[in-house]
Design brief:
Helix content: 40-55%
Number of helices: 16
Shape: globular
Distance between the termini: 44 Å
Oligomer: single chain
Structural class: alpha/beta
Largest sheet: 6 strands, mixed
Length: 333
């Protein structure tokens, strides 16, 4: 694991020098997002609201992990990543990549987990039997962090396991084929994993262990510095879409659009969204999130990764990786 994640960090840091500067007057930007990960912003995305408000073209590019998002931002190919997991953000910034968190994209706990093959008949009462087993994990992601914390809770030595770096979709396929004993992931891939096995801990049980699961909107520090006004407009569109969804009054109008853009059927989309929480701007600026909670949580994630040998160093503090300026601007809009 250490070799794989460290290699990513080294590659990302080497690419930082190539990061392009995007001033407010730039004609277009590129934004990363996930398929099979339905969110209200997609209603505004499909309707062209972002382009209308920003007055420029937006290239929307889908990725299969937050690690890939970090690499794309390091190379200058992407300026904003929507719903990047906190662990891949921590891995990147711990390695020296200059990224900043600008909002809480979504909070969730049931939609990111590890699933054990049914044939093993292993649950939380017999989790010690996972020792030495083969597991598919997308390294450097929220699923990776959750995996490490759960194994630590159950006293399973990760060093004695065969950990294979796989994107969630690949892990789901491997689990169904019997190629791995356990797979970790999120979204549509997690639902497919559950067809082949069972989760060890529920979302509520994970939260009791301090395993928070939330994604952020992140951006390159250069883009935040040079295009703060544009970024605030982008976040305002997102906040408005979240408010539309949270009201519960626009479900019939929004759900079909979101489902189609996410590449999912409406039933699966509704099921996934039922487990998502989209905090308001006021909530995001509270103590639980950007008032200190998120920064402290990132320090904990970094410590777990350092202890497991997945990263070589941590930052002294993650306070500087959160920039509330654009979100404060949204509050005043």
């Amino acid at each position: 694991m250490k070799k794989t994640v460290s290699a990513f960090v080294a590659g990302a840091v080497m690419s930082i020098a190539a990061t392009s500067a995007f001033a407010d007057g730039h004609e277009e930007i590129t934004v990363a997002y996930f398929l099979e990960w339905p969110m209200p912003f997609q209603f505004a995305k499909v309707n062209g609201t972002y382009e209308e408000v920003l007055g420029k073209k937006i290239n929307w590019v889908s990725f299969d992990s937050g690690v890939a998002m970090s690499a794309a931002m390091a190379s200058g190919d992407v300026q904003i990543s929507v719903s990047q997991g906190v662990p891949p953000f921590v891995v990147a910034t711990s390695g020296g990549q200059d990224l900043q968190i600008v909002d809480v994209a979504v909070s969730y706990s049931e939609n990111d987990n590890c699933v054990v093959a049914s044939g093993l008949e292993i649950d939380k009462t017999s989790a010690a039997e996972l020792a030495g087993k083969k597991v598919a994990v997308p390294l450097g992601t929220a699923a990776h962090y959750g995996f490490l914390k759960q194994m630590g809770h159950f006293g399973v030595d990760v060093a004695g396991m065969s950990v294979v770096d796989m994107a969630p979709a690949e892990g789901a396929a491997a689990l169904s084929q019997g190629a791995v004993d356990m797979a970790c992931g999120w979204g549509g891939a997690l639902r497919r994993m559950k067809e082949s096995g069972n989760v060890l801990l529920t979302g509520a049980e994970k939260e009791e262990l301090g395993i928070l699961v939330f994604d952020v909107t992140s951006a390159t520090a250069s883009y935040v510095a040079e295009s703060g006004d544009d970024l605030a407009k982008f976040l305002k569109v997102t906040a408005d879409a979240n408010a539309m969804w949270n009201s519960g009054e626009n479900t019939d109008k929004m759900l079909p659009v979101i489902a189609k853009d996410a590449g999912m059927d409406e039933a699966a989309t509704a099921e996934t969204l039922a487990g998502f929480v989209f905090p308001s701007v006021e909530d995001q600026l509270s103590a639980k999130w950007f008032g200190g909670g998120s920064q402290a949580f990132m320090g904990g994630v970094a410590d777990v990764f350092l202890e497991s040998g997945s990263i070589d160093k941590t930052l002294e503090s993650y306070e500087g990786t959160v920039n509330t300026g654009p979100l404060m601007a949204v509050k005043g809009m």
